[in-house]
Design a protein that fits this description.
With about 210 residues, this protein is α/β, with parallel strands linked by helices. It contains 9 helices and 8 strands. It has an 8-stranded mixed sheet, sandwiched between helices. The protein is globular and about 45 Å long.
C-alpha cells in the first residue's frame, strides 16, 4: 500500500521504518523540505522516498499525520480529500499553546479542518521508542494500538496496517470516543495487551 507520512520526527520516522520494513511504499515529508530527509531515506532503504507535504498527501492511499498539533491547520485540505488520514497528533498546551476546543476532542477539531477525509485517530497513544521496538509481526502477545473514528472501513484499513507491523488494534469507538485516547487517559502511553486494553476501556465505560 502507498503510505504518506507528514512529519518526519520521532513518530513519523519510526512509522516510516516500520511500514517500509513490512513492504509498504512510503513517502515522507517535513516542514523543511525533501532535501533535509536524504539521510533518513538512505537509512530506511528503497521503498521510501521524500517529498513535499503536497506530494506526500497525493501519494498516500493512507496518510499519517505526525506533526505538532498546533500546526494542523497547515495540512493540505484539497490534496487529502477522500483519503484515509491517521491523526497521530496529541495536544499539549505547554508545547502547542492555548487552543479553544469548545466541547470537541482534538481529532474532531482536526476533522473540522479536513472535512472530506476519512479520519482515524491512531498511533497517538504509544511512545515512539516503544513503537520502534515492541512490534512483533506474526503470532504473539501483541501490544495494543488504539483506533477511533466514524468511518468503519477506514478504521479497518488502519487496523490492518497496525497488524502488519506487529501490534494489535483495539477500537475505542467514534472520533468523539477517541477522546479516551488523549493525554491524561489511563490508556495513554501505557503499554498493554488486548486483554488489559479491554478491561481498561471497560473501566472507562467503553467497549
Ligand atoms: N514522540 C512520541 O513518542 C509521540 C507518540 C505519539 C504521538 N506523538 C504526536 O505526534 C506528533 C509528532 O511528534 P514527534 O515527537 O514525532 O515530533 P517531532 O520529533 O518534533 O517531529 C515533528 C515533525 O513534524 C514536522 N513538521 C512540523 N510542522 C510541520 C508542518 N507544518 N508540515 C509538515 N511537517 C511539519 C517537523 O519537520 P521539521 O523538522 O522540518 O520542522 C518534524 O519532522 C505530535 O503531535 C505528538 O504529540 C508523539
Amino acid at each position: 500500500m502507498n503510505i504518506g507520512i507528514i512529519g518526519a520526527g520521532n513518530i513519523g520516522a519510526t512509522a516510516a521504518h516500520l511500514f517500509a520494513k513490512v513492504g509498504h511504499d512510503v513517502a515522507i515529508s517535513n516542514s523543511r523540505g525533501p532535501e533535509s530527509l536524504r539521510g533518513l531515506v538512505r537509512e530506511i532503504g528503497p521503498n521510501v522516498k521524500a517529498g513535499t507535504v503536497e506530494e506526500v498527501a497525493t501519494f498516500g492511499e493512507v496518510v499519517l499525520i505526525a506533526i505538532p498539533f498546533k500546526d494542523y491547520k497547515t495540512l493540505p485540505v484539497a490534496r487529502l480529500a477522500g483519503k484515509v488520514v491517521v491523526d497521530a497528533m496529541n495536544y499539549y498546551p505547554q508545547r502547542d499553546g492555548q487552543i479553544d476546543f469548545g466541547s470537541l476532542t482534538s481529532s474532531e477539531l482536526v476533522a473540522r479542518h479536513l472535512p472530506h477525509v476519512r479520519l482515524v485517530k491512531a498511533f497517538n497513544t504509544m511512545y515512539y521508542e516503544t513503537l520502534a521496538t515492541a512490534g512483533r509481526p506474526g503470532l504473539g502477545d501483541h501490544l495494543v494500538l488504539f483506533v477511533a473514528g466514524d468511518d468503519e472501513e477506514a478504521k479497518g484499513v488502519v487496523s490492518r496496517l497496525i497488524e502488519d507491523i506487529g501490534f494489535a488494534p483495539v477500537d475505542t469507538g467514534s472520533l468523539r470516543d477517541g477522546g479516551k485516547q488523549q493525554p491524561g487517559s489511563p490508556i495513554y502511553n501505557e503499554p498493554m495487551n488486548t486483554e488489559q486494553a479491554r478491561s481498561a476501556l471497560f473501566a472507562l465505560g467503553g467497549a
